[in-house]
Structure formats: structure tokens, C-alpha cells
Design goal:
It contains 13 helices and 15 strands. Helix 3 links the parallel strand 6 and strand 7. It is globular. The model has no long low-confidence stretch (mean pLDDT 92).
Length: 377
């Protein structure tokens, strides 16, 4: 049998279908001989999630009911049972989140038919507070019903194992937001051509902390202050342009750019910086051989952004969130050595070409599902 494709139909449940994930689902659908159906609903109105459209995989709309909020948030997805009956998947992947109230019924449905079910999640960070023990037991009881777990990072895998899920049944599928590059590593001179170029690309919202980047650039020595280009649009743009005029007039705001219009910005930059959270453009920047600076987040950043260590140049730095001084220190270190930046950029390119891309992510999903399907009696 062909182990590089999944035999039959695959089902996949998500709370929502974000635009950045749609290309991956379409790529996974190509690897399913019977197709892929994605069961997903709408986000809450206040969420800044752009819904995606599938071209190869099928989208089965869920009726999301968002209950409570904050740490008490719960979601019930209506129509899950009807979707399972209609699609009748040979294997099912669901978000490994006990806050989704309909998921246990999907687990029951698959188990009654002797079919594998895989959980997919970020990990299981340690819990604190007076109810931590109870919540931990509830989480582990939920996870133990899965035949295997997929997670984005090594940190996530370690967290699931530390919680008590069998380590041999946890698999890392690196959280890819772009395909492997189809162009060679761009060539850059060993020295900067004038001032160094620092680039930000993303939606201009408060959590991206572009304000910190403006202040950090202004705090650099005069000879290291870069040409800063902030590509994007969003609710914070007017305030950021006012702030830039006050503290760092050298910053440019060309607006939102997409697809081929972004390429010139990546090719002419020397360093990509995302001081806040989120940021799908990081991996695209790496395909253009850019070293990166990112705000610390979940374990996906650990695998993507690697600090210099030993003989490895690394490909970037992580900085504590909301720490302008730390960001300034890293920028000073990065921009003081253009030759090292070029080596780090080459490592960025290698990481996305060989390790973290859609193709590799699909391969892990296929491998995990097939390991369960072919092991079934």
C-alpha cells in the first residue's frame, strides 16, 4: 500500500477556519485518496480572524455557539454528528481542546466504529491555582481518549508527556505557514548598503507592539539606526504614524502589501522584526533569507527562531514581551555585525526549506494517520 497518501476519507475538526490555514488543508486533501472534509464554524465577532476558503478540501460549516468568555470560554459546535454521519471518515483529527463541548461525542462516534482519532494541539502548559489538580486530571482524562496527539513543537510534545500522555504517541508537526521556498537564497552583500534595513510585516494592531519597535530603533546609537519599513494596515496605523513622527521619523508606512508586491520588501531588508505576538509573515521572511527577531510565545517560536549556540549561527532572537530595553539590546547586537546577519539569514532559509514548511507538515500528518490505520485489526 502507498504510505505517502491516506487511504479513504479524512475528517478534520476546527473551531474556525482561518485564511492562513486553508492552503495547508488543501495540501493535506491532495494526500487523501478519498478527500478531506474540514468541519469548522465562525469566529466571535470581536476576533481578528479572517476566514479562509478551501479549493481542494471541503468545508462543512459548523454552528458555533460561543459560551462565557476569558478563562471560562466554552464552545459548542452544532451539526458535528450529522457531519460525521454524512462524511463517514476512516480517520478523524480534532483540536485537542477540552473546552469544545461537542468533541467527546465525535470521539465516541469514531470509537464505536473502531476508527482512529487524533488530537491536534499546542501542548499542555502547567496549571496553577486552587483547582489546578482537578483541571489537570480533567485535561488528562480528555486527552487519553485519543489514539495519538499531534503538536506544533517539541515544547508541546514535552508538555503532553509531562502531563501523562504516552510520549511514544505524541508527534511533532512543525507549525508551517508557508511552503518550502521555490527560489534560491537571495544574495546580499557582506556589508550594509548604507543604513541597515529593518522590516515589519503584519496587521497593525496593539498586540503586534510596533510601538516598541519604534522606540527601540530611536534608542539605538545614531550609526546603527535603521531604515525601518512597517508594511501593513489596521486599527493602530494612525496612532503609529503619529508616534513615528514624534520618536522615529525615519520609519516608513507603505500600507498593506500582498503576494508579489511583498517580495521587494523582503529582498531589500536585512532583518525582520516582530516584537509582539502572532505574525505569519515570519516564515515568509525566512524564505527570503532574513534573520528574525520575535516576541516570546508558545513553543512554535522555539523551533522556528533559534539563538546562536556553539558552532551554529542560529537564525534570530526571541525577546521578552513588552520589554523595549530587551528589544533595543537585541537590535544593537544584530545590526552591529552584518556578516553574522548574513550567516543567520542563510540558516533561516535552511530551516524553512528543510524542516518547517507545508510539505513537511503534511508528511507528518500522513505518517501519523497511516500508522494508526495500518495498525488497526
Amino acid at each position: 500500500m502507498d504510505r505517502v497518501t491516506i487511504p479513504g476519507r479524512l475528517g478534520l475538526q476546527q473551531r474556525v477556519l482561518p485564511s492562513y490555514r486553508a492552503p495547508f488543508f488543501d495540501a493535506l486533501a491532495v494526500a487523501c485518496t478519498g478527500g478531506l472534509s474540514v468541519f469548522a464554524g465562525e469566529p466571535r465577532p470581536r476576533e481578528t480572524i479572517v476566514p479562509g476558503a478551501l479549493t481542494i478540501a471541503r468545508h462543512a460549516p459548523a454552528r458555533n455557539r460561543h459560551l462565557l468568555g476569558g478563562p471560562l470560554y466554552l464552545c459548542h459546535q452544532g451539526g458535528l454528528q450529522a457531519w460525521l454521519e454524512d462524511w463517514d471518515p476512516q480517520a478523524l483529527i480534532v483540536e485537542a481542546n477540552p473546552r469544545y463541548l461537542a468533541t467527546p461525542s465525535a470521539v465516541d462516534w469514531m470509537q464505536r466504529r473502531g476508527r482512529p482519532i487524533v488530537g491536534w494541539g499546542l501542548g499542555a502548559p502547567p496549571l496553577a491555582g486552587p483547582l489546578a489538580g482537578l483541571r489537570r486530571a480533567w485535561r488528562l482524562s480528555f486527552l487519553r481518549r485519543f489514539d495519538a496527539l499531534l503538536t506544533y513543537s517539541r515544547r508541546g510534545a514535552d508538555e503532553y508527556a509531562a502531563l501523562g500522555f504516552p510520549a511514544g504517541q505524541v508527534f511533532v508537526a512543525p507549525n508551517a505557514a508557508a511552503p518550502a521556498p521555490d527560489h534560491p537564497l537571495p544574495e546580499r552583500p557582506a556589508v550594509f548598503n548604507g543604513r541597515p534595513g529593518v522590516l515589519f510585516v503584519g496587521r497593525l494592531q496593539a498586540r503586534k507592539r510596533v510601538d516598541l519597535l519604534l522606540h527601540a530603533c530611536a534608542a539605538l546609537p545614531a550609526d546603527l539606526q535603521p531604515e525601518l519599513v512597517v508594511v501593513g494596515d489596521g486599527p493602530e496605523r494612525p496612532a503609529l504614524e503619529v508616534l513615528a513622527g514624534q520618536v522615529y521619523p525615519r520609519a516608513q508606512f507603505p500600507g498593506a502589501k500582498h503576494g508579489p508586491d511583498l517580495a521587494p520588501y523582503f529582498r531589500t531588508a536585512d532583518l525582520f522584526v516582530l516584537p509582539g505576538t502572532g505574525g505569519l509573515a515570519v516564515q515568509e521572511a525566512m524564505t527570503y533569507g532574513l534573520p528574525v527577531v520575535m516576541g516570546q510565545g508558545d513553543g512554535t517560536n522555539d523551533d522556528l527562531v533559534r539563538s546562536p549556540a556553539g558552532t551554529s549561527p542560529g537564525n534570530g532572537w526571541q525577546v521578552p514581551p513588552d520589554d523595549a530595553q530587551a528589544l533595543t539590546t537585541v537590535l544593537r547586537e544584530a545590526l552591529a555585525d552584518p556578516a553574522r546577519l548574513r550567516a543567520m539569514g542563510a540558516e533561516s532559509y535552511r530551516i524553512v526549506a528543510e524542516e518547517i514548511n507545508w510539505e513537511r507538515m503534511v508528511a507528518v500528518f500522513v505518517e501519523v494517520v497511516n500508522s494508526l490505520l495500518y495498525a488497526a485489526p
